[in-house]
Amino acid sequence: MKPIYIDFLNRLDVEELAMTDAEILSAIETSLATQGRGEAVIEPRVHLEPRVADGHFNVLRGALKEPIDSAGVKVVGDFVDNYKLGLPSELATLLLLDPRTGIPRAFLDASGITDMRTGAVTAIGAKYLARKNSKVLGHIGARGTAYWNVRLLDHLFDFDEIRVHSRRPESRDAFAERLSRDLGKRVVATEDWRSCVEGADIVVEASRLSAPEPMLRTEWIAKGAFVVPYGTMSAIELSLTDIMDKLVVDDWGQCKGGKFGSLRAHVEAGKLSETTLHAELGQIVAGLKPGRESPEETNLLWHRGLSLSDIALGHAMLEKARALKIGQRLRYA
């Protein structure tokens, strides 16, 4: 058998790549369109709960046809108390494989990929479902994915006002300071949920609750707003879906089942079903179903996280790494 080599990108390599906002958004938008056209395979995520800490592993699997032409598996831990150890709550790895032979192609640190692609899906959802003139963002949560939510949304909308909130004052203040520095504009850290999200054009709820609790009130959502709730534990009221004109998900197969997710109770209550679902985001990006059709629409996107997004962004990173000669090649066989 001839030698087989695998590309390896660690966290420092990923940082050195310095993926631009445009590169990240392009990779994810392309993958969503591929999914929307039915040129991908995605399996619902599964969970592994070690039951030795407050956390679990998410295992995501999928494959994309050409031009990416790759299968992949990502394993990402979600451990709420990691901050006490000076660690991010989410640490991830991504394995890319040849879909025809099973040969491993690459192994990447995917913690940054997880953050970037999550923010990109949020931003692309807003591109198609929010008002084009949206100028006020209210963001709940300050974990890793939160930064890329705000950064990529601001890349598309150039907000006049950005509000952020999280449970711990030191966390939200540091988050606001980092965003202000990187975006070159004022970012306000609010002391409560209501002052953060009430009347905002775009509302993102990425909280870190230990159990479901209705913290985000439906009455705070302005008509015509775009709302993205995606916390592991639900922080929204059952009534939130009642005011929505369009309910959109990233993949109905993984949204309709499982024990976690911000709209899990809504699925169980029948408020979100194949009947009430407007579309998967990929169908909208591919032009098969309409996105926002009027300024008055109030729309919601629930994204659980797609293996296809991880694969697409990992592929884009590998292409850039090869061009810049970043990373390592390891002998596999």
UniProtKB/TrEMBL annotation:
Transmembrane segments: none
Pfam families linked: OCD_Mu_crystall (PF02423)
InterPro entries: NAD(P)-bd_dom_sf (IPR036291), ODC_Mu_crystall (IPR003462), ODC_N (IPR023401)
Signal peptide annotation: none
Parts forming coiled coils: none
This protein's GO CC annotations: cytoplasm
Superkingdom field: Bacteria
SUPFAM superfamilies, alphabetized: NAD(P)-binding Rossmann-fold domains
PANTHER family in UniProt: KETIMINE REDUCTASE MU-CRYSTALLIN (PTHR13812:SF19)
UniProt family annotation: Belongs to the ornithine cyclodeaminase/mu-crystallin family.
Protein name (record): Ornithine cyclodeaminase family protein
Organism: Methylobacterium terricola
